[in-house]
Task: inverse folding
């Protein structure tokens, strides 16, 4: 978008012609980023590659070869074409039913799977090559990476789930998300590892609308544009989530202003950026260790309560009422 290569009002199928003969032919880039394109939250992917609790040999090998290059877990490698399989399943997936003529707003991993495919088509290179060169290295983000076991010892990486149903081991250093693992650890929706400090630097660059350390990473106010609410009835920005101070059950503290934007993560993470007060909040946890069924973080509203303490301590400007 910043380079003028992406039109938010254009149909995604204009950029990805293989979508033109599917039920996704008319989705616009804007609707996909706003999670209002009718995409389901998720679809079966890894489940199709397992039978009776055993990995299908058509999809996996215990040796890394040219045909099986993607490390799903230590000692298990997936088919080179796994990414194309996930893409085919995405294209064939059904849509949500419309409500009063419109698709409901519902977060979908498929939105980011589609955007990864679209981005790589426009960039003509994998995201795992583009992002480190253009952002992570210039920003000095030494820890931010996909597949961290290729660079760091396991002891430096927090464990996540004790996976008893797919990879059948304690996960540590490989992406928790099963679909991202299947395609080799680099997903549009999952797969990135980092320390809190490196994540804070990346988010500070966003908070400053693409500027950091004397360098402008964006030549237009694209962060401000993407972080704003876009349509009535949908609090989300483009790719970003947003808080709602009027709803105590929302993802941000009631003390955070309506301009706050960011995102949460399934494994127990969040970042929230407050342009009014110039406050950046980064929270990293491994709430899925050892069991992804652990919902105490949400039940006790831990992330939001910590954010509230920050606002009270800093005496920040907060919403009226």
Result:
């Amino acid at each position: 978008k910043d380079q003028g290569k992406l039109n938010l009002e254009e149909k995604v199928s204009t950029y990805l012609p293989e979508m033109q003969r599917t039920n996704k032919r008319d989705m616009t880039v804007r609707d996909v980023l706003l999670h209002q394109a009718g995409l389901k939250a998720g679809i079966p992917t890894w489940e199709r590659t397992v039978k009776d609790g055993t990995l299908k040999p058509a999809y996996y090998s215990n040796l890394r070869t040219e045909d099986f290059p993607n490390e799903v877990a230590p000692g298990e490698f997936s088919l080179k074409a796994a990414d194309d399989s996930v893409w085919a399943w995405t294209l064939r997936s059904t849509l949500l039913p419309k409500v009063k003529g419109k698709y409901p707003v519902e977060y979908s991993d498929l939105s980011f799977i589609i955007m990864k495919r679209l981005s790589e088509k426009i960039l003509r290179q994998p995201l795992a090559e583009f992002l480190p060169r253009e952002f992570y290295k210039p920003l000095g983000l030494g820890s931010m990476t996909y597949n961290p076991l290729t660079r760091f010892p396991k002891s430096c990486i927090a464990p996540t789930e004790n996976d008893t149903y797919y990879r059948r081991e304690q996960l540590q250093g490989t992406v928790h998300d099963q679909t991202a693992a299947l395609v080799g650890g680099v997903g549009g929706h999952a797969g990135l590892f980092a320390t809190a400090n490196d994540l804070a630097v990346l988010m500070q660059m966003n908070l400053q609308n693409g500027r950091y350390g004397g360098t402008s990473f964006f030549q237009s106010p694209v962060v401000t544009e993407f972080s704003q609410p876009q349509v009535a009835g949908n609090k989300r920005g483009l790719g970003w989530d947003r808080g709602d101070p009027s709803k105590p059950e929302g993802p941000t503290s009631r003390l955070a202003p309506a301009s706050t934007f960011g995102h949460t993560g399934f494994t127990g993470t969040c970042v929230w950026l407050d342009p009014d007060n110039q406050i950046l909040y980064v929270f990293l946890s491994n709430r899925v260790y050892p069991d992804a069924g652990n919902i105490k973080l949400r039940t006790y509203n831990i992330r939001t309560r910590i954010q509230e303490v920050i606002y009270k301590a800093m005496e920040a400007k907060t919403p009226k009422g």
Remarks:
- The chain has ten helices and 15 strands.
